[in-house]
Design goal:
Oligomer: single chain
Bound molecules: adenosine-5'-diphosphate
Structural class: alpha/beta
Order of helices and strands: EEEHEEHEHHHEHEEEHHH
Length: 241
């Protein structure tokens, strides 16, 4: 579960996240949608505990900067940053040691196989293509069997096989009760599995929808997205008024 209350993040005077509050339950896949610069990555980095911010963020009831939260949190950044001088397999070993995992080898093997990295296990981080770096980043985040996972634009740069595999993994995570946030500006990439969507603009959440409500009302996610982002305003007045 992720619970965010009044998250505000400023870069000097610029407000990149403006009083964001949201809740995502176990087993839910939430999409953070919005145009470039809306504040999606900033929010994800705040949740991951990488930035200072005002407000509160809880991961499964733990403050997001606590060790308890970090133990159960996986983060796949927008720009992968593998260790240049560790091989693919050594990345798995590093994470296993850092998180004190036991009997992790089989899971690591399965992950690198599914991401088509098994035959590249001896390649150094710096020798991997951008897409392969993205794949190793996904394997590292998922090796710990996180209860909460943050994906920042995960489909950008992945080949079709990896996109398909990642989507299958997302369904599996959902079944296991994992909480997932995916940031994206490509709504069609998340069409099959989203449960909740938050449309961000200018650092604020301008609209929030549950899948069931969208399906019931016949509202189209893409149309909703454009109606919010292209008129540059909130639909909150309409909701409350
Ligand atoms: P998104 O992920 O939705 O594209 P970001 O969270 O990356 O948006 O950026 C939100 C806003 O914050 C943008 O205007 C961006 O220029 C600004 N921003 C992001 N990172 C920094 C930073 N390190 N310093 C100053 N401004 C930043």
């Amino acid at each position: 579960m992720i619970n965010i209350s009044h998250l505000t993040k400023k870069y000097h005077r610029f407000v990149a996240n403006d009083n964001i509050s949201l809740m995502i339950q176990d087993g839910e896949i939430a999409v953070l949608a919005g145009p470039n610069g809306a504040g999606k990555s900033t929010a994800i980095k705040c949740i991951a505990g990488l930035l200072r911010f005002e407000g509160e963020i809880e991961i499964d009831g733990f403050n997001n900067k606590s060790l308890e939260a970090k133990r159960i949190l996986g983060y796949v950044p927008e720009i992968p940053a593998p260790f240049e001088l560790l091989t693919v397999w050594e990345h798995m070993e590093f994470i296993a040691r850092a998180y004190k995992l036991e009997n992790w080898e089989q899971r690591a093997e399965e992950l690198i196989t599914r991401m088509e990295l098994a035959d590249k296990r001896k390649r150094l981080g710096k020798e991997l293509s951008k897409g392969m770096q993205q794949k190793i980043s996904i394997c590292c985040a998922l090796l710990i069997e996180p209860k909460v996972v943050l994906f920042d634009e995960p489909f950008v740069g992945l080949d079709p096989h990896a996109i398909k595999e990642l989507k299958t993994m997302l369904f599996e995570m959902k079944e296991k009760g994992t909480t997932v946030i995916i940031s994206t500006h490509m709504l069609d990439s998340v069409e099959e599995f989203w449960d909740k969507v938050f449309i961000m603009m200018n650092g604020r959440i301008e609209a929030e929808r549950e899948r069931k409500a969208v399906e019931r009302s016949g509202e189209n996610l893409e149309e909703l997205f454009f109606s919010i982002t292209e008129r540059g305003g909130s639909d909150k007045e309409e909701v409350s008024g």
